[in-house]
Amino acid sequence: MKILVAIKRVQDYNVKVRPKSDGSDVDIDGVKMGINPFDENALEEALRLREQELATEITVVSIGDSKNEDVLRHGLAMGANRAILIESEEYLQPLGVAKVLKGLVEKEKPDLILLGKLALDSDAGQTGQMLAGLLNYPQGTFVSKIEIDNNKLIVTREIDGGTNILEMNIPAVLTADLRLNEPRFVKLPNLMMARKKIIEKIKVSELASDTSTKLELLEVSVPPSRKAGIKVSSVKELLEKLKDKEGIKL
């Protein structure tokens, strides 16, 4: 089984980003960047499937400029067999990413496509679903457990009310939740060896003819500060405050 894992370069999850002074976008100048945590969970699961001899080849792919090579080398250091950089100077929105990945899937013919459930920078959580729709593949989103039985995928999904379990055919698209696993620590020798490995490069135009922006970013701003709360001395006083403030009939 061949597995394709899409990974994205985003700001480090420990960094608190701020908007630019003109509010045009998020300011990432000088900000520490790295692999999107949910994508790292997706890659870790692919590696575990290979260790169980359920997968034979793992390819990591990222879309962007040459800066994205660092997350691809991180993926190679974790244990991926191949790395592909889809070269694009423009920032692609989820639908554009899904179209590009669709072109790559048709070219590479993987049996399983894994992505993170969302990216820290956009927090959209749309690409996996859009990709599955474009490919007409079954999908499992927010996945916290993956099993393979007789060429069938059995996935456990995190939902608001708890979990649900789906059975689906391969090929399929799955998006990883943080609960899926704990990514392995990447050792320095592996990182050094990954620097010497070849990263295949493909122009975005070779995979998708239309990646145009569908949405316009109007402004980025810091959320307004929450007003200070009040303390009450008793339940009776709390009910009176609620009644006066909200007009609640008690």
Question: What's this entry about, in short?
Answer:
The protein is an alpha/beta fold and 250 residues long. It has helices at 37-51, 69-78, 94-108, 127-135, 188-194, 235-246, and strands at 2-6, 9-11, 18-19, 26-27, 33-35, 57-64, 82-87, 112-116, 139-149, 152-159, 162-169, 172-176, 200-203.
Question: Would you mind describing this structure in some detail?
Answer:
This protein has 250 residues and is α/β, with parallel strands linked by helices. The chain has one domain: 3-Layer(aba) Sandwich (Rossmann fold), CATH 3.40.50. Helices cover 27% and strands 28% of the residues. It has six helices and 13 strands. It has helices at residues 37-51, 69-78, 94-108, 127-135, 188-194, 235-246; strands spanning 2-6, 9-11, 18-19, 26-27, 33-35, 57-64, 82-87, 112-116, 139-149, 152-159, 162-169, 172-176, 200-203. It has a nine-stranded mixed beta sheet with strand order 11-10-9-12-8-1-6-7-13, sandwiched between helices. Strand 6, helix 2 (69-78) and strand 7 form a beta-alpha-beta unit. The longest helix is centred in the first third of the chain and has 15 residues, at 37-51. It is globular, with a radius of gyration of 22 Å.
